[in-house]
Each structure stands twice: as C-alpha cells, then as structure tokens.
Input
Amino acid sequence: MFIDMMKKIPEHIDVILCRRMKVAGISYELQQEYRKWLRFYLDFCSKYYLAPTDRESPKQFMQKLSEKGQSAEKQKQASHCVKVYLDIIANEIEPAEKQAVRNSSQATIVDAGKETNGWSAVFKSLNEAVRLRNYSKKTFRTYASWIDRFAGFVKNKNPEEVVIDDVKQFLTDLAVNRNVAASTQNQAFNALLFLFRHVFGRPDDFDVKSGVVRAKSKKYIPVVLSREEIDQIISKLRQPYNLIVKLLYGCGLRLFEALNLRIQCLDFSENILTVHDGKGLKDRTLPIPTTILAELNAHIEQLRTLHSTDLEGNYLGVFMPNSTGRKFRNQAKDFSWQWLFPAKALTLVPEEGAYRRYHLHETHVQKAIRSAVLRCQLTKRATAHTFRHSFASHLLQANYDIRTIQKMLGHTDVRTTMIYTNTVRSRTLQEQKSPLDF
Output
C-alpha cells in the first residue's frame, strides 16, 4: 500500500532502466528491488523539496538511508540504482526531454499546474536563497512547505501575479478556517515574508499590518520535571542516550545542538562546552557538569576505538560544514572533528564511492526518551525539550539571575526566558553553574 502511494518512475525511464538490468543479467526479483529504490529516491526528493538531478540530492538520500539503519548492502543497491537513473538522464534521453526533466527537477515538489505557471523556478530560487544565508535544511523544508500550501491556496496563479491581498487572505484563512495556533500562523508569515523579500525581490510590497485576522495567542507554561523524575528517566536509558539526556538537562541544550556536538566542542582543561551554530547560528559556552566528566572521558575513549576502526576501511571522514568541508578537506578524518554522538552506521556517498559518518538521528533519541518516560509511568508528558525547560526552571529555583539563565539558554530576548518565572518561585544569583551539579 505504501509503495503504491510513492512517486512513479517516468515510463520512458522505467523502460530504459529495465532494459539495462536485463542486459546486466540481474534477476527479476532484484530488478523489482532496484525499481523500488528509485521510487524511494524520487519520493524522498518530493518530500524534502529537492531536485532529483541535483548533485547534492543523492548525498542527502544516502544520508537518510543511513539514519534509518539500512544495511550496507541495501545502501549499495540504492546508490547503484540512483547512479543508473542519473546516467539515463544524462546519456539516453533526447535533449529537449532532458531539459524538461531538469526543469521538473523541482517537479517532484509541485504538480503540473505549478510547474506550468513558474512555481518550479520559485522553489529553485528559494533553495538558493536559503543556502546563501546558511540557513538549515529544516528551515528550507519549513519555508518550502508553507509556500507550497500558499501556491495551492492561490490556485497556482503565476508568481508574478501574486499580490499582498493573497497573503492576507491566506493568513486569515489559517486563523479562521484552519484554527491554527498563533505560532503556526507566525511561521507561515515568516515563510511568506522571506518569499517576498528574497525570492520575489519585492520587500516593499509585504505590508500586512491590517486586513489579517490574527490567531489567538495562548499563554504557554512549559512542563517541568522534578530532579527525582529526571534521575528516574536517566536510569531507564542506556548509552549513549543517557549521556545525551544528561547534557540536555545539565547544559540546557536543544536536541539538535547536542547531536551536532563534535569532540573539539569539549574543553576539559577549562570544563567548558562550546555550542557552535545554535538557533539563529549563534555560538555560546556553558559549564560542563562536573558529575559527568568521568563518563564523558570514557565515552571519548570508546570513540577513539570507533575512529580507528573507521580509518582502517574506505572512510572519508565525517560530514563537514559546507564551507569548512571545501576549505579543509583532510580535516574530516581528524579525531577532533568527529561527532560526539555518531550514527551507528556509515553513510555511502555515491559520487565519492566511499563512506562518511553522520551524527545520531534525532528520532532515535526521541524514541528512546519516549520509551523511558512510559516505563517510568510519569504523570507528566516529557520530551527531549522538557529537559531544557527543567534546566532553566531549576536554575531559577536555585536563585540564579534571569540574565545569566538567558545567556546560558542562548535567548536573544530576555522576554523569552521570562516564561520560566511562571514555573517556580525564585531569588537571584549570577554565577553560572549546571543544575546537574546541585
């Protein structure tokens, strides 16, 4: 049933693919496996607004397969199939048809109506604008999703004909007919603001001060766990998930910040942890909880063994930040650049014909936490972000100054931090310290 819902392989490409597999002597059963992988690839590109013919798309696809725990054999099958698909596009179809495929690289994003009216070019420009500003892939997917919904709302009219009244009607529809939360409407607003400013090049046209029904904003008080509840959850987690949770609570990290840590982020001589490119691409430093120093050192020794094993094989190193990866290619193998929480399996990079390692995927940590919370039979709903809420609340409860907590959380505006004053009663201290050390 799931396979039937995926993208279909274009008929003329499917014919060429099957012919090639027959000539290569591939069995019928394996042919079906190869065709399934190509459909997975096209569906992946559709889901994440990627161009199937773009050189970066196969990399991201293989990375996703690794995150999902696919075996090395399955990854090789998928990689080979995508390579054959790209070779067919490059060498076995007519020039006019080839151009049509390239134009519809974003066709996996939009339907035929959007493609005809120029929305494909909009998504391509959006991708370039987001990458130019070093925004995350998650930001691109969020913006692209809202712009896709907006295009459907205006019935795929030509982007050049889109006016601010269309935006006002769309945002009003979200609040009135869709009953979305204020934060959701704000997310849509930011996506369309980016569209007008950086894709359409019409920043002055974006004026929505009036004529929009705003979704009602509700006062939100975060869930906070007691220290006993946190210890109970940690006791139900195995390595490395228990160490991750200790950092989430002990340093107030967001989940993506914890998983993006590299070994060089830890300075044991000063007991300082540095978060690079946190939310808003901001860096900040935090004290490492002294109670987990021995555990961290033991974990790093295990990583040394893993790294040595990786270097013995066909290993290119870890995935690097774009600019750093281009500038210092050899550093990907340096131990200091390795992930603090690496993925269990290596990721095959098709065009390089070798393997790289990605960090542990967020969903693995979320599932482990969810399972531990269920086994603890807590009366509170707890997620990975709940530990960050508990970090801030416990610091307030221990009389730490709100500005100190703001700095440790990496909040731009102290009003964001002030939400925690609703969770506890507090006095004030200014020295930075981890609540895990209390």
The longest strand covers residues 272-275.
